[in-house]
Amino acid sequence: MKKILRVLDANANRAMEGIRVVEEIARFILEDPKLTAETKTLRAQLKQAVSCLKAEKSREAGKDIGARLYTESEGKRKNLSDIFKSNIKRGQEALRSLEEFSKLIDASLGKKFKALRFKLYEIETMMEPKVLKAVKLDFEVYLVTDPMRDHIKIVKEAIKAGIKIVQLRDKFASKAKYLQLAKKVQKLTRQAGVVFIVNDSVEVAKKVDADGVHLGQKDGNPKKARKILGPDKLIGVSTHNLAEALKAQRAGADYIAIGNIFETPSKPGKNGIGAQKLKVISEKLKVPVVAIGGINRNNISKIKAVGIDRVAAIRGALDLLKSA
Length: 324
Prior knowledge:
CATH class of the largest domain: Alpha Beta
Strand content: 5-15%
Distance between the termini: 59 Å
CATH topology of the largest domain: TIM Barrel
């Protein structure tokens, strides 16, 4: 029985540790009150169930051969998604072991651990799309391609320079040509691990399995785009004032582009709103903000000074990348 208790103790610790990491992601990375509460409650319920086992008395950490094992995969994490997946699975597997071995002590405990395991599956379903999007939103400079230049050449240069996110934008291309361009860019970005966003067209984004779509004020409803693309795809919206930004946030935008901040050739005749107005708008929002419009190496400090970490550019994006 002592060996069974050691198994239970080890898995109780594993489950608690895995769930704690998941809770920290919900709390500090996603800043999601509901998911934080769900994971915190689950951990408390697990602690209560484990206390019935009294397995910690059998602990012999010095004799545990597992303590000296450290696999290559265990020592590597590519990004936040890797950390989440590893720890949510760790918790689920440990709960399965607790469910099985606890039956040898008290059959009713097996049922409790099973219920906790299925609750963790629910949390995984709710959190995974949010974590995937958080990884995609981990960037400083966002490249928007220029229809006046070769899209493929621009993307290749950006990937080589270390860009993390690319948006294909061409208001003049036919639907057929735009789809073909999107397929080529998708292949390049997927191979490089770069996030790929399609401008305007939800249909094209869906067809090429892009990482998301970026919508202008007249390009469609974010809610409809979400139904078509699914929960793990990014939906960005271009806005020019607080009312538009708040509307986009309510509609479920994952990030909001605000601009133009400064005067720019892509918006002839339009004065920029300036960094201070950008600050006022961004402070009212809960989702990430991307500043766009006339941003270059000479004025990016003004953007950073008002607390904005993400900027987008058509021209000069690679220069901004060097100064980020």
